[in-house]
Design a protein that fits this description.
The complex is a heterodimer. Chain A is α/β, with parallel strands linked by helices. In chain A, 51% of the residues lie in helices and 13% in strands. Chain A folds into three domains: 3-85, no CATH class; 100-156; 161-246, no CATH class. Chain A contains eight helices and eleven strands. Chain A has a three-stranded parallel sheet with strand order 1-4-7, with no helix packed on it. Chain A has a three-stranded parallel sheet with strand order 2-5-8, with no helix packed on it. In chain A, strands 3-6-9 form a three-stranded parallel sheet. In chain A, a hairpin with a 6-residue loop joins strand 10 and strand 11. Chain B is α/β, with parallel strands linked by helices. Chain B has two domains: 1-53, no CATH class; 55-86, no CATH class. Chain B is built from two helices and nine strands. Chain B has helices spanning 55-69, 73-85, and strands spanning 2-5, 8-9, 13-15, 19-22, 25-27, 30-33, 40-42, 45-47, 50-53. The chains are: A alpha/beta, B alpha/beta. Chain A binds chain B through residues 33-39, 41, 46, 50-51, 53, 55-57, 59-73, 75-76, 78-80, 82-84, 86-91, and chain B through 16, 31, 33, 35-42, 44, 46, 49-51, 53, 55-70, 72-73, 75-76, 79-80, 82-86.
């Protein structure tokens, strides 16, 4: 066998019997086969080639032709179909599989199919029992599908949670919207709106009795000029506080 | 060419290379061809015969099969048409 590698055959006859070609280019060539060892082609490029059979190869096609004419067209077609299907025993082609793997051993095929069918039925049965029948039977017996959990361990929200929330909110709104004593020390609570208005006018809340005392000792001159009535009220309140302290 | 006249072949293998069969009967016979001189069949009867190939004939079919598998379907089909027209 002659090995040809990376050769270019152009417009020439190439006797391919028994040769091996790798990465060759055939351009306008005539591949001539005479019935020797079939050649091999690996990663070759073919362009405008022709195939010619000579010698014993040509004899073979002539023999098939004579059989075709002699009354064996079906047998010849069978051979040609095998060639097209690649069934012919090429040198590098593996042997056909043994008979038991070709689907004609029906006894073994039946046994294997039966085993597979039994396995499938068993699996489906177990799956059905585990997911449908088993739980249904457990329920019928009064059991639990899963481990029972004590209700005391489950956090619960009160049924009237929304109503209770509304009541708390209303109570809180009412509480901050009324006058009341905030403590036994004399602190008072005023409505939240009045408190906000007061804070905006005075840049904050007075703190305890110190503020009242300061205001009494040093009345705001600006307020006295701009709001005479308010100043008079403050003085009267301070007088009252002095009277109370005197008492 | 060897002449074979009026012979009846049963369930056996018959090498046909270079023979001229005339008025023969082939019944369940395996016809073996090796690619040598082409045999001739005249007035023969065939029944349940099978074709077998060895040597150059087998190599030729393998060569054609390899060509067909490698993408030269048209070239191989052309050869097959010539066989059917012969």
């Amino acid at each position: 066998m002659t090995m040809f590698q990376k050769q270019r055959f152009e417009n020439e006859e190439v006797m391919v019997d028994g040769n091996s070609y790798a990465q060759c280019i055939f351009d306008g060539s005539i591949l001539v086969f005479s019935g020797g060892t079939p050649p091999t082609f690996e990663r070759c490029q073919f362009k405008n080639i022709k195939i010619e059979l000579r010698g014993e190869a040509a004899n073979t096609t002539a023999y098939l032709g004579s059989l075709f004419q002699a009354g064996l067209p079906d047998d010849v077609d069978t051979v040609l179909n095998k060639v097209e299907a690649g069934v012919m025993n090429l040198p590098d082609r593996p042997n056909p599989p043994p008979l038991e793997n070709t689907g004609q051993n029906f006894a073994q095929l039946g046994v294997i199919a039966g085993v597979i069918a039994v396995a499938c039925i068993w699996f489906i049965g177990m799956y059905t029992w585990g997911t449908v029948l088993g739980p249904m039977q457990t329920l019928d017996n009064g059991g639990f599908l899963r481990t029972e959990v004590d209700f005391a361990l489950i956090p619960r929200l009160p049924d009237g949670l929304a109503v209770e929330y509304d009541n708390v909110r209303d109570a809180q709104l009412a509480r901050i919207d009324q006058f009341a004593f905030a403590s036994t020390d004399g602190d008072v609570a005023i409505p939240i709106d009045d408190a906000i208005a007061f804070m905006l006018e005075n840049d904050g809340f007075p703190v305890g009795s110190e503020v009242a005392t300061d205001e009494a000792d040093e009345p705001d001159s600006d307020e006295s000029t701009e709001d005479g009535d308010d100043a008079g009220d403050d003085e009267s309140e301070s007088d009252d506080s002095n009277d109370e302290s005197g008492d | 060419m060897q002449q074979v006249i009026g012979q009846v072949f049963g369930k056996e293998q018959v090498a046909v290379d270079g023979k001229a069969f005339e008025g023969c009967t082939f019944n369940n016979t395996r016809l073996l061809y090796k690619g040598e001189n082409v045999p001739t069949f005249s007035n023969c009867t065939f029944k349940d015969v099978s074709l077998e190939f060895e040597g150059a004939a087998e190599s030729t079919l393998q060569f054609l099969g390899g060509l067909y598998e490698s993408g030269f379907e048209r070239a191989v089909e052309t050869i097959f048409k010539q066989i059917r027209k012969a």
